[in-house]
Amino acid sequence: MAQNIVIVNTGCANISSVKFAVERLGVNVTVSDDTQVISKADKVFLPGVGTANAAMASIEQKQLVSCIRDLSQPVLGICLGMQLMVDESEEGIGKNTPCLGLIPGQVKRMQVGELRLPHMGWNQISPVEQNTLFKGIDAGSYFYFVHSFAVAPSEYTLASCDYGMTFSAAIHKDNFFGVQFHPERSSHAGAQLLKNFLEL
Prior knowledge:
By secondary structure, the chain is an alpha/beta fold. It has helices at about 15-25, 35-40, 50-60, 65-70, 80-85, 185-200; strands at about 5-10, 30, 45, 75-80, 90, 95-100, 105-110, 120-125, 140-145, 150, 155-160, 165-175, 175-180.
C-alpha cells in the first residue's frame, strides 16, 4: 500500500533536496501548504533552512500553525524544522521567536569557544535509544550538520552530538520527531533514518 507522504511547504529553500532523498527510496512525495492535504498525509516532513523568525512568519502567513499542531501522524522536522518544533528560539531580531511548542525546549546560540560557527560538516551522533529513528544505525555514525543554534539535551533527546558543547542531534515527543542534521545530505546513514521514519 503506497503511503501518502507530504513535505510541508514552509517557504524555505531545502525542500527539493528532501523530496529527492525520499524519492530515492522509491516513495512518491507531495510538497504542499494546503492544510487539507497536510492533515490527510500518512507521514509529514517539516523542513527548514534560514532563520527561525522568517520561517515562523512564513508558517503563520500560510496559516499552518494550528494544522501542524493538530497532526497525529508521525512528523519529522529537519534542521530548522526541528528547531521550530520546540517552544521558542533565541534566533530573533532583538527578542526570542515563539515556535510551534510541540516538544518542550529552547533553541539557543551555540557556545563553542574557539570553534567556528556555523557548525558545518560531518559529525558523529550518539543515539540515546535505537528503536525508532536510529534502528540499524550504529552509534558514532556520521551525519551532515549546518547550524549555529541548537537545543540542549533533555528527556526528549533521541541522539546527541558534540561540537564544543553537547546538544540534541535528534528529539522526540509523541508523534513529533526532529533531527538537527540533514539526513538528505548524510549518505547511507541519512537514507536509513529516512527509511526508518517512513516505516514508523
